[in-house]
C-alpha cells in the first residue's frame, strides 16, 4: 500500500507540493528528501538532460520499487527533469516516508545513487565554449555497486 | 529488411546524429557482427564496441551476449553510459 | 560563509520556506533534508516536547556548527518545535546544502542523530490513559556514539 | 544562602514538580553531597543519583566530578536524559 509518485517531466519540479503530500500519512514519523540542482560553474550557461522515451520512466519506476521493498517505505517521490535547465534549477527530487528515520534516509541515498548511473539519462553542459557531455564519476559507479553488494 | 538505428548520449556525436536507417538482406545476429556491419557504413561506428554501451531493441534492453534475431522494422538503440541526477 | 538558520519555536515549522531559502545558493548542487513528525499510534492524543530555556538553543547551534565543519556545508537549517503537538505535526526539520550529495546527506544524518540524544529535549506522549515519558532508544545512543568514534 | 533547584524531564515527576528552593548555611561541594542533602529534604531525590542525569548551574552544564562552589541565589538544574527529534 505504498503511496508513490514517479514523475519524468520537461516542466519545473513542484517539490513543495510533493513533500506536503508525503507528510500527510499519519503512520509516517520520518520524511527524508534530496534535491539535486544545476550548480553554478565558470562559463556554464545551461545543463541539458536527455532521456529515452520509454526506458527512462521504466528505470525510475524500478528504482522506486526496489527502494520501497528494500527499506520498507510507506511513501516515495521520485521526480526527474529532462530538457535544458538554467543554473539553480532542480534536476531531481527524491523523498521517502516511513516509520523511522534510518530507513527514510537510506531510501533517499539508495535512490539518488541509482539514478546517477542506472537510469537512462545523458547530461550535457552548455558552456560559453560549446556543449560538453558529462560522464558519471568513478565514485558514482562505486556508490551504485556498493548497494548491489550489500543486498539486504 | 529495413533496420532503424538510434543513438543516445555522447555516442550520438560520433554517429553524426540521433539515428539513421539501413537496408540489408542478412541481418547481423550478434553484437560483434552488428558493429562490424555498421562500421562499413559509418566511420564512427567503432566506438559502439565500448562494452559500457547498452543496446535496446524496440525499447527493450537486451543482453547481447546471447545474440539476437532482428526483424524488418526493428529499432536498435545504442545507449551511452548513463549520467542522471 | 555558511548560511544558517537555527530555530527553536512553539509555533508550526515553516518547512517549505526554508527549503526554498537553502536552494537559493547557486554554488550548491545538493540539498538534503529530513522532517520528523508526530506519528499516529494507538491511543496517542498528543506529543509534548519540553526544552530548556537556555541550553536547548545552544545545543542546536553547536550541532549545526559541528555538522558544518565536519561535512563542509554551505547552508544549514535546523528547526525544532517545543510544546504540545497533534499527530502529523512536524517536530524537527533539518536541511543541508552543499556542492555534493554525499556531504549533504551525511550532514542530515549526523544532525538528526545528535538532536535525538545530545540536545536538551524531553518527550512525553499524552495517551488516552495519561502522560508517558519517552526515553531515547539504545539504537539512538549508538547512532550518536558512532559519529563520535569516526572523527573525520 | 538560598539555592534554587530545577528539574527537567521525567525526573520532575519524581521531584514533585519543576523546582523548589532551599536555604542552607553549608552548601554541598560535590554531586554526592548535594544529592545526600536533597534526599533529606525530598523523598524522591535518590533518583537524582542516576549517572545519566546531567547538572547545569546557572544555565551552564557542569562536569560534576571536579566538585563545585555554590553561591547564594544559584540555580541548579537536573536534566533527565535527552530525547529530542
From TrEMBL, chains A, C:
Q: Which SUPFAM superfamilies match?
A: Molybdopterin synthase subunit MoaE
Q: Is Transmembrane helix among the key words of this record?
A: no
Could you tell me the EC number(s) of this protein?
2.8.1.12
Into which EC class is this enzyme placed?
A: transferase
Q: Which reaction does this enzyme catalyse, per its entry?
A: 2 [molybdopterin-synthase sulfur-carrier protein]-C-terminal-Gly-aminoethanethioate + cyclic pyranopterin phosphate + H2O = molybdopterin + 2 [molybdopterin-synthase sulfur-carrier protein]-C-terminal Gly-Gly + 2 H(+)
Annotated pathway: Cofactor biosynthesis; molybdopterin biosynthesis
Query: Carries keyword Cell membrane?
Result: no
Protein family (similarity comment): Belongs to the MoaE family.
Assembly and oligomerization: Heterotetramer of 2 MoaD subunits and 2 MoaE subunits. Also stable as homodimer. The enzyme changes between these two forms during catalysis.
Instruction: State its role.
Output: Converts molybdopterin precursor Z into molybdopterin. This requires the incorporation of two sulfur atoms into precursor Z to generate a dithiolene group. The sulfur is provided by MoaD.
What is this protein's name?
Molybdopterin synthase catalytic subunit
Automatic annotation (TrEMBL), chains B, D:
InterPro entries reported for this sequence: Beta-grasp_dom_sf, Mopterin_synth/thiamin_S_b, ThiS/MoaD-like
Name residues in a coiled coil.
none
Protein origin, superkingdom:
Bacteria
Q: Could you tell me which Pfam families the record lists for this protein?
A: ThiS (PF02597)
- The protein depicted here goes by the name MoaD/ThiS family protein
Source species, please?
Hyphobacterium lacteum
Amino acid at each position: 500500500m505504498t503511496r508513490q509518485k514517479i514523475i519524468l517531466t520537461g516542466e519545473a519540479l513542484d517539490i513543495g507540493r510533493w513533500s506536503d503530500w508525503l507528510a500527510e500519512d499519519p503512520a509516517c514519523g520520518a520524511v527524508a528528501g534530496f534535491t539535486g540542482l544545476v550548480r553554478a560553474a565558470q562559463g556554464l550557461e545551461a545543463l541539458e538532460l536527455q532521456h529515452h522515451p520509454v526506458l527512462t520512466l521504466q528505470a525510475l519506476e524500478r528504482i522506486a520499487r526496489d527502494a520501497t521493498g528494500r527499506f520498507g517505505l510507506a511513501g516515495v517521490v521520485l521526480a526527474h527533469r529532462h530538457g535544458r535547465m538554467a543554473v539553480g534549477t532542480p534536476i531531481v527530487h527524491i523523498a521517502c516516508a516511513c516509520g523511522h528515520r534510518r530507513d527514510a534516509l537510506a531510501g533517499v541515498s539508495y535512490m539518488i545513487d541509482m539514478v546517477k548511473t542506472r537510469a537512462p539519462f545523458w547530461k550535457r553542459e552548455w558552456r560559453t565554449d560549446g556543449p560538453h557531455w558529462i560522464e558519471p564519476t568513478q565514485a558514482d559507479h562505486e556508490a551504485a555497486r556498493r548497494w548491489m553488494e550489500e543486498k539486504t | 529488411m529495413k533496420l532503424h538505428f538510434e543513438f543516445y548520449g555522447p555516442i550520438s556525436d560520433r554517429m553524426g546524429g540521433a539515428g539513421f536507417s539501413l537496408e540489408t538482406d542478412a541481418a547481423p545476429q550478434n553484437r560483434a557482427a552488428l558493429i562490424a556491419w555498421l562500421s562499413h557504413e559509418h566511420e564512427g561506428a567503432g566506438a559502439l564496441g565500448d562494452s559500457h554501451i547498452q543496446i535496446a531493441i524496440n525499447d527493450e534492453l537486451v543482453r547481447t551476449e546471447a545474440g539476437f534475431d532482428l526483424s524488418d522494422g526493428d529499432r536498435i538503440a545504442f545507449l551511452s553510459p548513463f549520467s542522471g541526477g
